[in-house]
Amino acid sequence: MAKEKNEVQTNEEKKVKKENNKYRHEVEIKIEGEKWTTALDKIFTKKQKSVHVDGFRKGKVPKDIYLKKFGIESLYLDASDLVVQDAYTKALDDSKLDPIIQPNVDIKDINEEGVTFIFTIITKPDVKIKNYKGLTIKKEEVKVEKEEVDHEIEHLLEEYTEIVTKDGKLENSNIAVIDYEGFRDGEAFDGGKGENYSLEIGSNTFIPGFEEKLIGMKAGEEKDIELTFPEEYHAKDLAGKDVVFHVKVNEVKAKIKRELDKEFFEDLGIDGVTDEDSLYKKVEEDIKSHKDREAENKYIDNLLEAVSKNVEVDIPEEIVEDEIQVSLKRVERNMMQQGLSMDIYFKLTNSTEEDLKNQLEPEAYKNVLYRFMLEELMNIENVKVTEDDANKEIDKIATDYHITREEVLKEIGSVHAMQYELEVRAVIDKLKEYNK
Questions:
Q1: Are 260 and 276 in contact (CB under 8 A)?
Q2: What confidence score (pLDDT) does residue 50 get?
Q3: Which H or E run includes 298?
Q4: Predicted pLDDT of residue 54
Q5: From CA 302, how far away is CA 297, in angstroms rounded?
Q6: Mean pLDDT (whole number) for 138-144
Q7: In 10 A of CB 40, how many CB atoms?
Q8: Cβ-proximal residues to 50 (8 Å cutoff; 6+ apart), any chain
């Protein structure tokens, strides 16, 4: 048995090399012998099924013929993919390291005898918090002014405005349903045509002068409008140019503002709102609730920022880069939900992926710093949340939002993720307590 163990040590050389940064470790693993030859054989068997060699049926090419034609080198990279996970497992076992992000993997050497990987493993840096108590951070007091409530009620009335067809002339704030086409030097220009376009007069949607010159027109009326595009107009071929728009008004509509009456309160469909007083009270409560949330979030941000100034930590750039990649994926998902690809986004914003990464870097660094800081505070304050507590919270969320437990787990990721979230909340509560 001792001899076999000694042979394993000889066949799989392992060593750990540390660079200047004590949280960045290079672990070298060589896979050779039977493991490597088995991997090469598996890749040959896979390639044999699809390779074409004159004189042999598909899938029947002998190994020696294959190697003579394509070379054993054609198997190396695919074979290395088969053994890289085993090599990584051995790297962790040998080094006893606890990686905080996925390692970078390079192939140092590869040949018929074996493959040598170098795993760059990043571990969590040491965090020292010099002080987190007695900080002069206060939560902003929240007040709701009468003007804010009046503005929100006015917004509600606007939201429920009725739009009706009207006879007579087009006036400011009316809506004109128009056909239009623009001409420069007698030729129609791209992007200058529309049909049944609803244009609110006074919205300044079109170039200066267009909407004003529609005032007074009636449904069915047509006219030519002479205008000049602004010098700073985005389309260079139209900037500063004289043009003529032929416009036909198909329909004139007026906006009828709602009144604070019984019909309006019924249309709102808000529980407990039956008159002007109850609406005022409800809107005031909603504004205060929104302001409270904003004030609480700002207070927590200010508190975490204040604590972070008392933190000593050397964060490896790879961890920040990993966080940037997470943010990039989030941006990409948001773009996809809007029907945009990242290529289109970069064209619209006249930017590159590198520009976006630079833009995301400060926030990514702050996220990593705060995460390490909060985790260190969890250790200092001995904050622990059990799986049972996490499961109870998941069930509560499911009940409160009338969804299934599975839907909650799909959103948060796992019970462990909920444990972590509750631990973060607990630490923040302690920070509030220490810094009243």
A1: yes
A2: 81
A3: helix 276-308
A4: 72
A5: 9
A6: 93
A7: 21
A8: 58, 59
d(CA 293, CA 157): 25
- Check: CB of residue 313 under 8 Å from CB of residue 128: yes
- Whole-number Å distance between alpha carbons of 66 and 61: 6
Nearest partner of 197 among 183, 212, 211, 215, judged by Cα: 211
Could you give phi then psi for residue 275, rounded to 5 degrees? -155, 180
Q: Which residues of 312-337 are buried (b: 16+ CB within 10 A; e: fewer)?
A: ebebbebbbebbbeebbeeeeeeeee
Percentage of the chain beyond pLDDT 70 is 94
The whole-number average pLDDT for the span 63-73 is: 90
Residue 92 near residue 14, CB atoms below 8 Å: no
How far lies 32's CA from each of 29, 86, 123, 260, 374, in Å? 10, 12, 28, 83, 44
Residue 17's pLDDT is 38
Dig out the tokens for 277 from the structure: 């007083």
Q: What is the pLDDT of residues 189-211, one digit of tens each?
A: 988 999 999 999 999 999 999 99
Please spell the DSSP secondary structure of 77-143, one letter per residue: HHHHHHHHHHHHHHHHHHH---BSSPPEEEEEEEETTEEEEEEEEEBPPPEEES--SS----PPP--
The amino acid sitting at 389 is D
DSSP bridge pairs for 184: 187
Q: Does residue 48 carry a pLDDT above 70?
A: yes
Residue 179, beta-bridge partner list? 248
Specify whether the CB–CB gap between 373 and 311 falls below 8 A.
Answer: yes
CA distances from 44 to 78, 115, 141, 196 (A): 10, 17, 72, 66
| 171 pLDDT above the threshold of 80 | yes
pTM beyond cutoff 0.70: yes
- DSSP class of residue 18 equals E
How far apart CA 266 and CA 259 sit, in angstroms, is 12
Residues of the chain with pLDDT > 90, as a percent, come to 81
Could you give the CA distance from residue 246 to residue 179 in angstroms, rounded to a whole number? 8
**CA–CA separation, 23 and 122 (whole Å):** 6
Q: Is the pLDDT of residue 20 over 60?
A: no
Q: Which two tokens stand for residue 119?
A: 């795993």
- What is residue 242's three-state secondary structure? strand
Residue with tokens 């609480």, as numbered in its chain:
296
Give CA separation, 385 vs 323, 375, 427, in Å.
Answer: 25, 13, 11
pLDDT at 5: 31
* Confidence (pLDDT) at 2: 29
